[in-house]
Design brief:
The complex is a heterotrimer of chains A (about 325), B (about 400) and C (about 300). With about 325 residues, chain A is mainly α. Chain A is built from 13 helices and no strands. Chain A starts with a helix and ends in a 15-residue tail after the last helix. Chain B folds into two domains: about 200 residues, Response regulator (Rossmann fold, 3-Layer(aba) Sandwich); about 130 residues, Response regulator (Rossmann fold, 3-Layer(aba) Sandwich). In chain B, strands 9-8-10-11-12-16-17 form a seven-stranded mixed sheet, with helices on both faces. A five-stranded parallel sheet of chain B has the order 2-1-3-4-7, with helices on both faces. Chain B is globular, with a radius of gyration of 23 Å. With about 300 residues, chain C is mainly α. In chain C, strand 1 and strand 2 form a beta hairpin. The termini of chain C are far apart. The relative contact order of chain C is 0.20. Chain C has eleven helices and two strands. Chain C has one domain: Orthogonal Bundle (ABC transporter involved in vitamin B12 uptake, BtuC), CATH 1.10.3470. Helices cover about 75% and strands about 5% of the residues of chain C. Classes of the chains: A mainly alpha (about 325), B alpha/beta (about 400), C mainly alpha (about 300). At the A-C interface, helix 5, helix 8, helix 10 and helix 12 of A face helix 4, helix 9 and helix 11 of C.
Chain lengths: ~325, ~400, ~300
Amino acid sequence: MFKGMKYLRKNDAIMLGFAIVLFAVLQGLVTGRVLSSFWQLNVLIIGINIIMAVSLNLINGYTGQFSLGHAGFMAVGAYVGVVLTTNFHAPFVVALLAGGAAAAFLGVLIGIPTLRLSGDYLAIATLGLGEIIRIVIMNIEYVGGAAGFKGIPHLTNLAWVFWVTVIALFFIKNFVNAQPGRACLAIRENEIAAESMGVNTTKYKVMAFAIGAGFAGIAGGLFAHCFYLISPASFTFMASFNYLIMVVMGGMGSITGSIAGAFVVTFLSAALASWPEFRMIIYALALIFLMFYRPQGLFGYMEITNMGPFRKIFGRPQAQKLKGGKADE
Amino acid sequence: MFFTKKSLRLLGVLAGAALAGTVLAGCGGQQAGSSDTIKIGANFEMTGNVANYGQATLDGLNLAIEEINAAGGINGKKLEVISADNKSEAAEAVNAATKLISDDNVKVIVGPAVTANVIAESQVATDAKIPVIAPDATSPDVTVENGQVKPFIFRSCFIDPQQGSVMAKFASENLKAKTAVVYVDNSSDYSKSLGKVFKEQFEKAGGQVVMEQAFLAKDQDFKATLTSIKTANADVLFVPAYYEEVGKIVKQARELGITSPILGTDGWDDSKVADIAGTEALNNTYFSTHYSDKDESVKPFIDAFTKKYGHAPNVFAALGYDAGKMLAEAIKNANSDDPEKIRDAIEGIKDLKVGTGIITMDAKTHNPIKQAVILQNKDGDRVMIAKIMPE
Amino acid sequence: MELGQQFLQQMVNGISLGSIYALIALGYTMIYGIIKLINFAHGDIYMVGAYIGFFAITQAGLGIVPALLVSLVTTGLLGMLVEKLAYKPLRHAPRLSVLITAIGVSFFLEYTSMYFVSPTPRTFPQVMDNVAVNIGGLVINGQQMLILGITFVLMVILTYIVKFTNTGKAMRAASFDVETAQLMGINSDRIISITFCIGSALAAVAGVLVGIYYNSIDPLMGIMPGLKAFVAAVLGGIGILPGAVVGGIILGVVEALVSGFISSTFRDAAAFAILILVLLVRPTGIFGKNTKEKV
């Protein structure tokens, strides 16, 4: 017990060290104007997308529940957040937390009935729920309807995005490595077996769903305060697909993978911005070829801490290779 | 080792692509250095839901710039259009505008087409002190916020209240309508605000709006709503929307036996409406727009456009063209490529002849003062009913 | 118009809208049935079919029937090609990777089309007289009847093929278990290829008919109908042909009633809400068989 704790603490300290160095470098690049404002904005978007991808990975990759409605939860967080900051002048942190809480609450509310479904049926049901959330928002005149919510203060900056991302990563990593996360993995591998071993599958599925939704809500709050105006058009099922692409591209069930996926997708989109005519075509081809060469995603089930040279630093055993037959059924 | 050969190779490819992307992006930025061109950013909807509007506006803009360059440019400098795609999304519009300003060093931005995307972009442009000309965004709050004019945001088209009241007046005075149904596109600010103005003005003139209905852009089937609109039995139906949906609405309305006049706005101004609806269904419909294609002064533009693109321009293309002409005039008057000087020059534009008429910029609202016309569709032809000069 | 008649008219509107969803859903459900892939590119195949029909009529000057045939054959081949190039190499990959590939194919078809034909919508020439029949105030459109009729005929033909021909038996065997079917001497790759061909050809029929009916096509026209067709297929029970038709029609009727009596802005929300409610009661769709999972 004690040994385990110590082991955790040491690795967390290493990671925190990495994070501080990385933040210093990024902040330096921003302050020193090495990064143009376009790339600065894209660094923020990468951070937000990392939160989205990691939180979706918790639902899709770790718990094996195929959800396609993630953009809907993001929308809830975004709209709750902007109403609080713009109309009620609440502090940013309150707005973020409230947005996350609202999304998590909604996640519980719709998770309980729908998580009985499985596979593609769950996928289309969650896609539908995401669209329903968007359509309802679109019909609320108080938040600007289809035309969008205007005059949002620009509160999101590198520090906010970076540290919220770090907290999200830390939280989800620890969740996965703790008892509830292990239960989620068991559900992914074989739901019936997990249930017969005494895992309360509904409880853990809903828990994963709610945590994922909550972080999506927080990411939504960060996203909304980046752009002065948000409209329901930013949260369509196409956006949900985009987050799914990040997760699958990085590797289902790998946090490192989600980070890589979010980075690659956002970076591709930004780097191709100079060729608007071909951007989507190249993006489509990139997706298809990546899936050809690495159908299991860039990192598969592995984490960077389990790989090659990094294993030594973190004193980790070999990567635990979890054969995920059930996960993708 | 966990890096298999294959995964290493893939990582290599990715890293290579990333590097290439950065280098190329960097190159894009460095071309800005040459001093005999002036860079113009074009932030448009090139993919996504409303790509057809963005693309048409960009076509018009490109034609205007080409003509200006062919005539020797401005003060010896050529204009160069750098386009960026905003995927028909507000957040991406901010992203695209940021790219144009910071990486491409444009001096002025034209676009986007859709109101919400311009509003999203305006803060970035204002912060960077780069003037924006919105060619198609007709909502009043594009240029004015809380009663204050946004110093760097301009438009080159008329605004919704002007059109809405013109059509309300036309319905009650010329068509002697007492009752009306308003059928708007709920996903567009343009359509919603026109519907609101029409209702206010029509009721002020003694009429009554008996039913309000809504649809969403890209809808295909309008019959269900049109069936309930038919039950209202109103004197006129007002559909302030874009051509793609309008064509289908008119066609399906006539099929269901709605014979009352149908009124619309400049979003109707495209030959596609007649193609989709059919000339017979389109009889007894009226719409307001910027110019009549019969007008002699508009002919050079229509001919040039048809020659370059192989089809007649629609209203988006015309407004994009106007924005290009307006911009060129401003750069010429500013005699500089300094964004703030260009801004001052745009504000000072007076009696400028553009593709579709004559424009004077109102410095108090940054809206151009511009004529409007009402056209009637009659047996496949467009007949000008009225020409309205702004007060 | 009194309420009863308005209701009837909405039913007519709904059934005709639903028959379009049903027509696209037929192909969707066939493809899903055999390789369990949510083929997100199906809606875009439908768009390509519409464009091929359009160019066959306007550029090659063909009549409606030859144009339909050209579109049917070309699109069927395109479907096979997509399967061979994009999905077959991933036959043993995780299913989500194939799904992402399908999304990739969908983007690719949409945006290459957009690059070549521009995002501006095209209008179909009038190739068919459109007679509207008026029965006691109830307006029924000739083309709607045609689409509904074709949907039912195709459903019957397909059901016959799947139930009674050798190819159909092979399809069912392959959809049950690809590997075992292969052991029994069925060339599964060929069967999957044929299924894609038929499914895509069906999408082409839908594309051309919808193009004629609504008179307007554009490169992104497949996104929403593709999604709706998928909803219809799930509603009826994925992989079941009559289920796809029933699901499509239910969806159409719900949308028409919501648009007519509430507001069309809530139409899609209502469609999804119905889907979710049905799934909560019957987790595998209306006609879906509830297979007991073995431990």
